[in-house]
Amino acid sequence: MNQINSVFVIGESRTNSDNAITKNYGTFYMAFEVDDLTSEVLDFSCTHTIATTEAFLRKLFVGQVFPEIDVWLENTLNRRYGGSSRRAVLVAYRDALKRWRSMTGKPESET
């Protein structure tokens, strides 16, 4: 039997009504595979209309400790991400973090 030592979680948010993601998908989703023991982000994907968007965000997230991302994400997005879905990325991450904490039982004080 294959033993999986990770958690899969999705965060959801809305983008601007004129955003191509909203027009194509209605909602913005970000998916994370997180190591169950170390909380490291193992894989990442998101709804997107341009592949470079997903590739750029993947570089930001993969390898990071999932609950610690919130400390630097907003500043990093403001400084490095010029996409119109900047706010949606932050909200989707925080939604995924909330779901991850609920699934794993790890409270904020442990992160």
Write a compact overview of the structure shown:
The chain is α+β, with helices and mostly antiparallel strands and 111 residues long. The chain is 43% helix and 20% strand. The protein has helices spanning 20-25, 51-61, 69-80, 86-104; strands at 6-13, 28-35, 41-46.
Properties at a glance:
globular, 3-stranded antiparallel β-sheet, 111 residues, Sufe protein. Chain: A, single chain, alpha+beta
User: How would you write the strand order of the largest sheet?
Assistant: 1-2-3
CATH architecture: Alpha-Beta Complex
Report helical residue fraction: 40-55%
Q: What is the ordering of alpha helices and beta strands? A: EHEEHHH
| Number of β-strand runs | 3
Rounded radius of gyration (Å): 14 Å
What's the rounded overall pLDDT mean? Answer: 87
Basic shape:
globular
Supply the CATH class: Alpha Beta
Assess the beta-strand content as a share of residues. 15-25%
